[in-house]
Design a protein that fits this description.
Order of helices and strands: EHHHEEEHEEHEEHH
Oligomer: single chain
Strand content: 15-25%
Largest sheet: 8 strands, mixed
Number of domains: 1
CATH topology: Aminopeptidase
Number of helices: 7
Length: 223
């Protein structure tokens, strides 16, 4: 199977909805509680939530840039992550361990289809996010609100976050805020690149240097 990590776009968000991926139309993070309540009173709140999610994604893409990664297996979406600066995520303020640190981007959603769980896709998605943020520069860390009960789909499991490199930044019985420093991700990438260079050097044929001439030989003109 061919595995690829691609950017989250409105078209790919729609594709995630077609295959039944949870939270395709969830606006827990994208809208504040007042706007969510207003949406719930409309004639078709589900369709309204999907439209709001797509509008939010388009807005963040215009104002900040790519805010997610999608995992594809043989071109079929099987998981994704969503992340953005706190200013674009008004729903985060409702959590007891808010606010997010001003030097961090917030990871809101991380999902892998159950039939593909345990294959490293979640870790690969988080690494793709970290690589994107490192390459942008100026971002020190990623934070996320974890769910210690693993009961909700809209909050990332705290156990998963700990497994992929996040550490508790502000403790809470049910909704701790966790943090991953991007400099550690950058160090990890540099170490991998250095290891590759060492490996290439080990297998590359070495050319024997020409023997050094003595000072007397260097001073004597060639015959």
């Amino acid at each position: 199977m061919t595995r690829r990590m691609v950017r989250l776009t409105p078209d790919r968000l729609e594709a995630l909805g077609r295959v039944g991926v949870p939270c395709h139309g969830c606006v827990r993070w994208e809208l504040d509680p007042v706007r969510r309540a207003r949406l719930d009173r409309t004639d078709d709140p589900v369709a309204g939530a999907v439209a709001e999610k797509e509008a939010w994604l388009s807005h963040v893409l215009r104002e900040w840039g790519s805010c997610g990664r999608v995992a594809l297996l043989d071109d079929a979406p099987v998981g994704y992550v969503v992340y953005a600066p706190p200013a674009f995520v008004p729903g985060a303020a409702a959590h007891p361990t808010a606010p997010v640190s001003p030097d961090a981007v917030l990871l809101t959603t991380a999902y892998v289809a159950p039939q593909h769980a345990g294959g490293g896709l979640g870790r690969a998605l988080v690494q793709a996010m970290a690589r994107d943020l490192v390459e942008r520069g100026g971002i020190r860390a990623v934070e996320a609100f974890g769910d210690t009960r693993s009961r909700g789909r809209c909050v990332v499991s705290a156990d998963f976050l700990a497994r992929v490199g996040f550490k508790t930044h502000r403790a809470h019985p049910t909704t701790p805020r966790l943090r991953m420093e991007l400099r550690s991700a950058l160090t990890w990438r540099d170490e991998v690149e250095a290891a590759v260079e060492r490996l290439v050097g080990a297998v590359r044929p070495r050319t024997s240097p020409a023997p050094a001439r003595s000072l007397r030989e260097a001073a004597t003109p060639d015959a």
